[in-house]
Amino acid sequence: IPTNLTNNFTIINIHPALLPKYGGKGMYGQKVHEAVVANHESLSGITIHYVNEKYDEGDIIFQAKCQLEKDDTPEMLAAKIHDLEYQHFPVIISRLVSEKTQDKNNRK
Asked: Out of 15, 33, 49, 88, which one is annotated catalytic?
């Protein structure tokens, strides 16, 4: 990610795995779910993190986990991950905006 973006803006990403595992260039969406299932992981989840100049290496804001069953497919895992995203992303973003607003008000 260009540093002129990461130095001038707060950018937040949601990643469909528990970073630092299954992160980096080329690891997104279904590719992540396929890798997690292929490696017989027992847990996966989401990571909400700040974006810096390196793929998926920004500071972690929040993680949520889900169990994988032995017969889970990448598609089944994707559904579990989407549920976590829908449940947590709006709450975390709302909290961050509220904190930022409070910080600005306290500086006045």
From this structure: 15
Q: Is 15 a catalytic residue?
A: yes
Which residues make Cβ contacts (< 8 Å) with residue 59, sequence separation at least 6? Answer: 49, 50, 52
Burial letters for 32-55: b for 16+ Cβ neighbours within 10 Å, e otherwise?
Answer: bbbbbbeeebeebbbbbbebbeeb
Question: 68-102 pLDDT, tens per residue?
Answer: 999 999 999 999 999 999 999 999 999 999 998 88
Global pTM reads 0.91
Tell me the C-alpha distance between 36 and 106, whole Å. 44
